[in-house]
Amino acid sequence: MKLKYLLLVCFLSPLFAGAQQQFSVFFESNKYDLAADQNAKLNQWIAANPEIKIVAIHGYTDEDGSTGFNDTLANKRVNFIYDAVKSKLKIRDDFKTRSFGEQFPQSKNKAENRKVNIFYIEPKDLARENEILGIKEEAPKPKIPKKYPKTLSLRNPDGTTTQYSLDTDFMRKVDEAKAGEKLKIENLNFQINTFAIVPASRGKLYELLIVLQDNPKLKIDIQGHLCCMPNDRLDLSTQRAKAIYNFLLKNEIDKTRLSYRGFGSSQPIYPLPEKDEKERAANRRVEILIVEN
Fold first, then answer.
1. Residues 6+ apart with CB under 8 A from 199
2. Hey, what domains does the chain have and what are their CATH numbers?
3. Axis-axis angle for helices 67-85, 36-48 (nearest 10)
4. For residue range 103-146, what is the model confidence (pLDDT) as tens digits?
5. pTM of the entire structure?
6. Is 114 left (phi over 0), alpha (psi -120 to 50) or beta?
7. Which regions of 8-85 does DSSP assign to beta strands (E)?
């Protein structure tokens, strides 16, 4: 049997089982455009079924004429119907069109052989689309947790080295977070009333750097927050977020993956004025918003 595929075929013969429906229009001899009555029939069907989804279009001819002529004619009939429905109804991305020509069991009534069959799924069955089409969905592959270093040795300006413990749980959370999630960088401290990061917190910067180096799809927005005062007169919240941004830039993280903002004390976890140091520490924070991952 000679088949012509106009688009990629990715599902098999069980296509026509189950809850799939079929609609047919018929053509005059040697014609690939519809006569007025059949065109009206097609348009009425489209109007009555705005939420269906087309999964295949098949074209046929009668046995008059050569095999080559009939193959071409069936192909043109399929194209005509596709052009008529493509902007009006949903069509499966990998749907298939076939032109069978005369190569199918012929009816004794030649008029019944000059047709196009449209196969579709009704809205109530769309949740079972792949099941109806006989497509087996592969189970997602389990994500293997990445092994991050637990410690990091950094050289100091005087030539000595300092070893930092890394929070691998935090690193894993950042790596696996979805867009829109927000994570606080715990134990990231600054010198009082400045945006200078205290030496003991340098390891926190490298936790973030290592994850960004290991996950090139990750994009983040660095967000600074203050405690205590209603007004951020020195714009410290922005400057602190920018300090982290600049550290990542200097370590060759592309700037298109980074942004920063300061919110002052406009988004406190605890209302101002805070009751104690625990509440002040919670409000005084830097968070990472996952933009893309």
1. 162
2. 4-133 (3.30.1330.60), 151-292 (3.30.1330.60)
3. 40
4. 888 888 988 999 999 999 999 988 888 888 877 777 766 666 67
5. 0.52
6. beta
7. 21-26, 53-60
